[in-house]
Task: structure prediction
Amino acid sequence: MAYKIAIIVGSLREASLNRKVARSICGIRGDNLDCSMIEIGDLPLYNQDYDALPQQPEPYVRFRDQIRSADGVLFVSPEYNRGIPGVLKNAIDVGSRPYGHSVWDKKPAAIVTASPGSIGGFGSNHQIRQSCVFLNMPVMQQPEAYLSHVTDDSFDDSGCLKDGPLKDLVAVLAHAFADWVDMIHRSRAALAEDSAHVAVAKAKEHA
Ligand SMILES: Cc1cc2nc3c(=O)[nH]c(=O)nc-3n(C[C@H](O)[C@H](O)[C@H](O)COP(=O)(O)O)c2cc1C
Result:
């Protein structure tokens, strides 16, 4: 069974390089990653006053439901001014609240940053990672994915990565992410099973 992956792209640009990279990752592991691009451009700027409203803004409800129902999250983002694009940070904040109801909790994640520049969005990548760590998301550590020198020329007419070292790296990444999501879910299931056995054994002891 394929894992449901929510892809969040930190660029709203129609011809976004990062969006194309995200599509390529899913194309490579279509067998066990069922990917959906999650819209973040319509999310109103987060305001803590909203938390107290009986009715949350409709795009918040839609976004939170989409993340809640996902088995994993893939962030694919540019770097803006050596940091995380505001639109992506806003989405992360929206998903993290109201307090105690974060939709990110325990979701396995991976972070990819792509840029035409030479350091591949390193600054943005680590700011996203910092939020994920705080939000209790197990984030894949290797391979790291700072994709540098990515341009329109890296893709063919259908928007897929052309053959070459970049595509090879993305393929390694796609396989590692599929394995990562699988490992997290299997270990959780095993732990839950163990706890259930312990509970049953204890109940028998006291019977
Ligand atoms: C406001 C802004 C700030 C940017 N800052 C950086 C930066 O810090 N580092 C970098 O590598 N590229 C930077 N860029 C260039 C982006 O990497 C480039 O525009 C890229 O194509 C954006 O990603 P996208 O194609 O997915 O929209 C910046 C672009 C914009 C619009």
Remarks:
- The chain has a mean pLDDT of 95.
- The first helix runs from residue 17 to 28.
- The pocket of flavin mononucleotide is lined by residues 11, 13, 16-18, 78-82, 115-117, 121 (CB under 6 Å).
- The first strand starts at residue 3 and ends at 9.
